[in-house]
Amino acid sequence: MKINKCYRNIEDSYLFSTISKKVSEYKEKNPQADIIRLGIGDVTRPLCPVVTEAMHRAVDEMSKIETFHGYGPEQGYKFLRDAICKNYKELGVDINSGEVFISDGAKSDVGNILDLFDKENTVLIPNPVYPVYVDTNVMDGRKIIYLDANEENKFLPMPPNGIRADIIYICSPNNPTGAAYSKIQLKKWVDYALDSKAIILYDAAYEAFIEDDNLARSIFQIDGADKCAIEICSFSKTAGFTGTRCGYTVISDELKFDGMSINKMWLRRQSTKFNGVSYVVQRGAEAVFKEEGRLQVMESINYYKENAKIISDLMKNFGTWFTGGKNSPYIWFKCPSGMKSWAYFDYLLEKTNIVGTPGIGFGENGEGFFRLSAFGSRENIIKATERIKSLKALAQ
Description:
Blueprint: H1 15-29, E1 36-37, H2 49-62, H3 78-90, E2 100-103, H4 106-112, E3 122-127, H5 131-140, E4 143-148, E5 167-171, H6 183-196, E6 199-203, E7 229-234, H7 236-239, E8 247-251, E9 256-257, E10 260-261, H8 262-273, H9 279-288, H10 291-318, E11 322-324, E12 330-334, H11 341-352, E13 354-355, E14 357-358, E15 369-373, H12 378-391
Parallel strand pairs: 1-13, 3-4, 3-5, 5-6, 6-7
Antiparallel strand pairs: 2-8, 7-8, 9-10, 11-12, 12-15, 14-15
Helix pairs in contact: 2-9, 3-9, 10-12
């Protein structure tokens, strides 16, 4: 018996597990500390009423033999897939329900989609980056080429000259940097993928935070993307489903490689390895797209946007270089006084009892940068900014 030795090439601990351990150790030594957690991108506002009402009705259905649901379709119930198609239609994108696949979240799909691709493929990943993109490919033993995202290009790197890849990762608005590509910039990426005969794995988990018309809420708003891109989206940040788990992946019928339909391959993979998302959760997700649901969901998104503005204004007042804060729930900023990322993490925790995320945890290009999340409560956001102000913890 042989193990997968590629696991030797990944860090022993996931970034956020390391952060949790450090915070726990600090809390044990300082039990009275009032710790404000603005690190992990977990939401704090509850599911909106229209969602929970739909889920309650679905639970009642499950209690009666006439309306009970057992195994559902692996691709997801058509009522939810149709609702997603209608939502895309409002963005100017025509997709059919057969191109939509419901899952238990974007993170699962980001990792599982790699089942469709040979391990000999070369992967192009921006640095810094959401760790899951890297780790899942390292686990499979693929060659990774890192693309420099940095202060000079505002953490929005463009297609490299003289380099080709088979799998390209794009997250916009980006996690961790909060930066978002314009439609013009995304068109260049789509053209690059088409020329390279490559596939784009497009993470649109934060699309609901986009408010600028020149930014894309879907890669499929870009001509040609249906022939080179897979879009992965989530209800986690859009509607607070981080603890409920529901997302979806869109694969066009036009996406084909080596004479094989990627859509049909994914359907075959899911029907073999996945039993679908529960009926109750999918009814809740469907309610997100109803008129009342949209209004209630936007209320939460606007709440987080205001949180982001409060933090962004703080950065501006200190003259701190940052990205995000608009069109994104993340603020990515330069550590003060040339501090390293983990050093600033310790400094912020010890001096202000605020927990953020060190940029180096997202890759080498993240060194010297730091991420704060706007997903906290308004009370904690205001309290955190006041502590930073009093300490001048952002002074350059």
